[in-house]
Design brief:
Elements lengths: L2 E4 L2 E2 L5 E2 L4 H11 L3 E5 L24 E4 L11 E4 L1 H10 L10 H16 L2 H18 L7 E7 L2 E9 L4 E2 L1 H13 L6 E2 L5 E4 L7 H18 L1
Keywords: Pyridoxal phosphate
Family: Belongs to the class-III pyridoxal-phosphate-dependent aminotransferase family.
Cofactor: pyridoxal 5'-phosphate
């Protein structure tokens, strides 16, 4: 086996965490046969989860390779890989990696600026504090709206799963599309995700405020009342 790559939190599924201890067992088996363990943190990493800077921390593991992008550039196209020294040296011994735009000083400076702002403005803390408020408000929708089947995720990576029946879990695909279209009319842009396009994947900016959260949830509730 060459390796095993996995999102520690399933991003496109709406921020679903893996079962407790899952990666510990998988990593152990992969390494036992000579493979490397790779964490895909492109969507869920970089402090967005609030309670963890990296998604793999929730699982209590340390991967051999971490891939990251998106949030680290705050809109600027920027990506990076972190790995152990022995893996990097093994790659160097086999040849070399080349990228026409790799290692750009401008991109690197932008990446440093993002980290500086995150620290100065305590955006990681904000993702945890405001994110907890966000999830609590979304979870409260389950008591008001039968279409809301479950709320997944943490911090500023959340997912609202819409179903027609909470017993059969029949996806509310059409209703989700209608919800997103109506939200657009109200000034909120959402896109359905998931295998059945019945999940609202919610990834607000790290500087999002409680006021913005309340505006969002209030309007989601308003539209759900219209649909039900």
């Amino acid at each position: 086996m060459a390796g095993f790559i996995c999102e520690p939190v399933y991003g496109n599924a709406g921020g679903i965490s893996l079962p407790a201890g899952y990666l510990q067992q998988v990593y152990q088996k992969v390494r036992a046969v000579g493979g490397v363990c790779i964490a895909d943190e492109v969507q869920v990493g970089y402090g967005r989860l609030g309670h963890y800077f990296w998604g793999f921390e929730e699982q209590g593991v340390v991967p051999d390779i971490i891939s990251m992008a998106k949030g680290m550039g705050n809109g600027h196209p920027l990506g990076a890989v972190i790995t152990r020294r022995e893996i990097a040296e093994a790659l160097e011994a086999e040849g070399y990696f080349f990228s026409s735009s790799g290692g750009s000083p401008v991109s690197c400076r932008i990446g440093m600026a993002v980290l500086e702002v995150m620290e100065e403005e305590k955006l990681w803390d904000n993702a945890r504090i405001v994110g907890d408020h966000f999830k609590a408000r979304l979870q409260a929708l389950t008591d008001k709206h039968p279409l809301v089947g479950a709320v997944h995720g943490m911090g500023f990576y959340l997912g609202v799963e819409l179903v027609r029946d909470r017993q059969t879990l029949e996806p509310a695909t059409e209703e989700t599309a209608q919800l997103c279209e109506r939200l657009r009319e109200l000034g909120i842009f959402m896109q359905p995700t998931g295998d059945h396009l019945n999940i609202l994947k919610i990834k607000p900016p790290m500087c999002t405020t409680r006021q913005s959260v309340d505006f969002f949830v209030d309007n989601v509730s308003k539209v759900l009342y219209e649909l039900e």
